[in-house]
């Protein structure tokens, strides 16, 4: 797709990465444990959690024991995917991303903590990102190893789920909802 680097590796951004059941952070050129983030960044994530009543209720129902454990789980679910768009920009803007945690379809908290609020399948998300990056259906089919008619079905489903009527609409939707960043779109 492109040769973009992981945010935080060579810039002032931050990228959280869910690896198995752990959460690592790429920040200032290093991979560090989530717990080692500066307090100002943890406060920013805490503030994001405090603003999301549905996520707070789900985490409470999850039965997590303390605030640190709750905050880490929130960050893991909300920001744990690697999408080449920073989870925290140098300007302090948090941008969530959805990632395949292995519990899709079975997690009772899906869409409450994570950002799968659009009920996309993993494949729909892949197709959406490629459409938004300007790939034609034929190239998407080749890239994903599926039939072109299958890509067309995913595209139609995305139109319905996003209330879109064109690829331009899908691209706007993908940018607005952080499936791709504006930087990715213009590459």
Describe it for me?
α4 crosses α7. This protein has two domains: 1-117, no CATH class; 122-186, Arc Repressor Mutant, subunit A, CATH 1.10.10.10. It has 187 residues and is mainly α. The protein has eight helices and three strands. 45% of the residues lie in helices and 9% in strands. The protein is globular and about 50 Å long. A three-stranded antiparallel beta sheet has the order 1-2-3.
Characteristics:
globular, 3 strands, Arc Repressor Mutant, subunit A, 187 residues, 2 domains, mainly alpha
For the sheet with most strands, the description reads: 3 strands, antiparallel
H/E series, N to C?
EEEHHHHHHHH
Gross morphology is globular
Strand content: 5-15%
Percent of residues in helices comes to: 40-55%
In what order do the strands lie side by side in the largest sheet? 1-2-3
In terms of structural class, how would the helical and strand content be classed?
A: mainly alpha
- Return the average pLDDT rounded to an integer: 87
The number of helical elements comes to 8
Strand tally, please? 3
Uncertain runs are: none
What's the gyration radius in Å? 17 Å
Described by its quaternary structure, the protein is single chain
| Tally of domains | 2
End-to-end gap: 9 Å
């Amino acid at each position: 797709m492109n040769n973009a680097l992981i945010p935080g590796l060579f810039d002032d951004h931050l990228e959280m990465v869910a690896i198995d059941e752990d959460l690592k952070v790429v920040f200032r050129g290093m991979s560090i444990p989530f717990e080692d983030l500066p307090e100002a960044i943890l406060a920013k994530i805490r503030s994001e959690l405090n603003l999301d009543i549905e996520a707070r209720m789900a985490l409470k129902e999850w039965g997590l024991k303390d605030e640190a454990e709750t905050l880490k789980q929130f960050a893991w679910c909300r920001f744990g995917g690697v999408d080449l768009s920073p989870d925290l920009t140098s300007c302090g803007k948090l941008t969530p991303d959805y990632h395949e945690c292995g519990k899709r379809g079975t997690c009772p908290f899906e869409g409450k903590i994570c950002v799968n609020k659009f009920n996309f399948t993993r494949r729909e998300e892949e197709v959406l990102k490629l459409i938004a990056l300007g790939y034609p259906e034929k190239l998407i089919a080749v890239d994903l190893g599926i039939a072109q008619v299958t890509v067309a079905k995913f595209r139609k489903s995305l139109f319905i789920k996003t209330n879109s009527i064109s690829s331009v609409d899908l691209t706007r939707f993908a940018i607005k909802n952080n499936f791709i960043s504006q930087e990715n779109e213009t590459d």
